[in-house]
Amino acid sequence: MRKLVLVGNGMAGMKVIEELLHLVPDAYEITVFGAEPHVNYNRILLSPVLAGEKEFADIVLNTDDWYAGHGIRLHKGRKIVRIDRRQRLVHAEDGAVTSYDRLVLATGSHPVLLPLPGRELPGVVTFRDIQDVERMLGAVKRGGRHAVVIGGGLLGLEAANGLLNRGMDVTVIHLLGSLMERQLDTAAAALLKSALEQRGVRFIMGAKTEAVFGDERVNAVRLSDGRELAAELVVMAVGIRPNIDLAKQAGLHCERGVIVNDTMQTFDPRIYAVGECVQHRKQTYGLVAPLFEQAKVCANHLAELAYARYEGSVTATRLKVTGIDLFSAGNFQGGVDCEEIVFQDPARGVYKKLVINDQRISGAVLYGDAIDGNWYFDLMRDGTPIADIREHLIFGQTALGDSGHGGEDRVMRMSDTAEVCGCNGVCKGTIVEAITEKKLFTLDAVRAHTKASSSCGSCTGLVEQILAHTLGGNYSAAPKVKPLCDCTDFTHEEVRRAIRDRGLTSARAAIAALGWRTPDGCHRCRPALNFYVIAAWPDEAQDDPQSRFINERAHANIQRDGTYSVVPRIWGGVTTPAELRAIADVAERFAVPTVKITGGQRIDLLGVRKEQLPAVWGELGKAGLVSGHAYGKAVRTVKTCVGSEWCRFGTQDSTRMGIRIEKMTWGSWTPAKVKMAVSGCPRNCAEATIKDFGVVAVESGWELHVGGNGGVKIRATDLLCKVATQEEVLEYCGAFLQLYREEGHYGERTAPWIERVGLSCIRSRIVDDAVGRQALYQRFLAAQKVAQTDPWAERADGGGGAAQGDFRKVGTDYVYRSGRSHV
Fold first, then answer.
1. 540 and 583 both lie in a single domain
2. How far apart (Å, rounded) are the C-alpha atoms in residues 754 and 735?
3. CA 657/CA 680 separation, integer angstroms
4. Confidence (pLDDT) at 672
5. Same domain (yes/no): 133, 154
6. pLDDT reported for residue 413
7. Are residues 21 and 153 part of one domain?
8. Edge-to-edge strand list for the sheet holding 360-367
């Protein structure tokens, strides 16, 4: 077995090991050397330990048992001092020698110690590791009353707050006139300084420290202007330098950090490097999110998958001081070609500034109300055009979270019992407990452990805020390049491109061709792959029922008691006495417990047992009723009002328009459910402006609206354009749906899809490009020739497709032939 040696037992290095074990658990014999006499712990949470909010045991990430359980040989407190690249050996300080086939350097950084007289005195510390925290707490226990923190940056202020909480009198000395100048503009810095002063921290700004002095221990600090400050503890928090000592000894190319390429390899291809010691494309990083991104790429290449690339990171900062809400990211200072959008409310202590460049966010500073920090960060990192939402951009992502929040939008003020995820009934306390107890860093990890944000996704922003606040903000934000699932590192776009370019016509073929880590995929990727091949190859695709969720396999919605609901399609909400009679006869014949009118102007038969479904479908089919697809990620309904045919306010025949749209679009599979509506006048009785595709009649023709949502997270539509004729409505509708089918992510409703790509992009493809629109429309019509086959008719009483046996009764359970209750 090949030997892998990791030098550095910190968060970045151990993230490489964790990712590698996930990819290829038995590929290497792993040895880890750590200079500290501890297991891997969460350095992000040193500030809460200093402040007395956590203990060291609370921040341990990998216990001794974890290392042993994974067959990892851990050497604690053993520093590597030399690398023999020719013999592929590492030499420890105590003389021990270990061979390697692959070596990973994760040596971190050195804290900067100012060259001041007296800096070697006991009581002068830096703030980088748990030993520094223990030294500071030792000063508190010895009765020290006065602490001086040199440096008003992020770490300095966190140290000052922690020592203040421990009962010390704290003075911060800062060389410049503004705090956290690398993260804040002067306005936000002034608010922060005022808030900390109200807590009791004293500041001396624009001051230079000249000397530290004392007898056996430090007892005072002298400034360049002659002032002296009493100090039983001096904390130097003036920056870090990448630790490149070992790399330089080994002859590796170094500048500020160890130079690595996009695969995290150094000058020696057998040696990789990650973390704070690294310099990549002239940049070094000190926050954990980019370090974790580096670790994933490094593990990918150690596992010899060799397709991941690290292309740099955009970082964001939050202050880990309880009760202070602060966020900063990007180019917050602006520049010649930049514009600024500023909101300031001094009475509430709220300050927001967005820096705009080329109609995209290039920087942000939020103080006092940072709830939308992650949203702004995503827009900035993804380069999303903001011209369409600029008018309300500074006010944030409205209605964040689900509709049960009652306007609550301050994570820090939410009680632990406040519900965050309405779909799964998850409260804030459950999420916080999972983050702290399970050592979670990412949104996906929180979803996996709590189910919060795993259903409709509308509370995602709120969950990310809780994650950021719980970890102090230096958490692993969702990466810019998001894989489809944990089975692969390929993104949705890369998977779809491969399916098109390589002619992959089944989910199985895609899994095999793209080298999935799990041969059968998972519940997230299999349905997505199945949809992507259907959307790309409507004629040739092999639809795999076992890659669909239970509702789509059974062609009915499963209910909480295990029965199903049946919703026949009623074109545009218009029915006939014969159809109503047929529905009534079915309800009576099969003793359907509940018959209900739905919000989409359909009739729902609730409580149908699974073995009854084929017979129910057969009877409905005799009356000409087909599946309403109310169970699937598909075109659902087209809601209408009576329009000009009957209504005295109606301007156009909305009913006929709705029927034509539904006749054209029914049966189409889409990334997520699609609801449509046609209103006969601007009074909008069919509620078209909260649908995925809404049509509103006006005197001159039709307004076309897109991207609405009337569910958990309400979103009004955006106006796409106005057209004159019904034929144009059909063309634009078909083109819009096909663009969504071809480019939307599986499970992504039209509202977040449009927010992700920008309304301007949709308009350019649908409105401005007539040739492209026609091509999309024709592809949609071609796909519909295959899609418009009634699945109920295929499966009703001995018909084609699934036979009666697929809905057999087993004991008291009704199972599909696969034997699985759901994907």
1. no
2. 15
3. 9
4. 95
5. yes
6. 61
7. no
8. 316-318, 326-330, 360-367, 350-357, 339-345
